[in-house]
Structure prediction request, 282 residues.
Amino acid sequence: MPNLRLADLTAEIEANVRRALLEDVGGGDITAQLIPAERLAKATIITRDSAVISGTAWVDTVFRQLDPRVAVHWQVTDGDRVSPNQPLFHLEGPARSLLTGERSALNFLQMLSAVATRAQHYADLVSHTQVKLLDTRKTLPGLRMAQKYAVTCGGCHNHRIGLFDAFLIKENHIAACGGIAEAINTARKIAPGKPVEIEVESLEELNEALAADADIIMLDELSLEDMREAVLITAGRAKLEASGGINETTLKVIAETGVDFISIGTLTKDVKAVDLSMRLSL
Prediction:
């Protein structure tokens, strides 16, 4: 499945920002009204952490929707690695607007950069192999596309976006359909051309999935020995994805088994926001 591209997310970014500003600003920033409307200001946003940047388009959109008079001057781009105390961007414009937009803008940047930073860390751990690390559907409600884009900024890859763009047939689906072959054959009839992935829990089930011509076979919590055997048995007839309980400690050895993909929910669900700070000058 292809990675999300920023060019495909324009409408999504507009909607994300619109919701964020409605949630935060509501009927108006009453605290910002302490400052004279005509007062201009500048601000610099720095990072206090080492990080990989993601979310610049969301920041731009916050200030454009809030007040087009605000100028945003970037010193970095998505995918850049940054160090503590490094300036990320500068702002110029009405002081009220800079202060009103600060939290929404930084919320997007710190959260998406956290995802990109985690993704880059994991990608670095397996850079000596050919494996592709995939995200999952374990994302913040309403921000899936944003988080999946951030994953790509960190050098990892996107699994399916949702329940609509690919089949992922798991244990309960298989049981309800009457077996692995039956589930795969039914999927082909329902949506010809959509990728069909099926979960297996043993080498016996792997052989059933191969016989039914699955596109991708998910190895759910198989032992390392069985994963290596699965790679030999499959011999390129399908793509193999390791999944289930994978963490920083086990990632490298699983990648070295020769599987094609490893899916990791922690890329998007267990991240710590990057610490950012805005310094205002009038």
Notes: The chain has two domains: 6-117+272-281, 124-269.
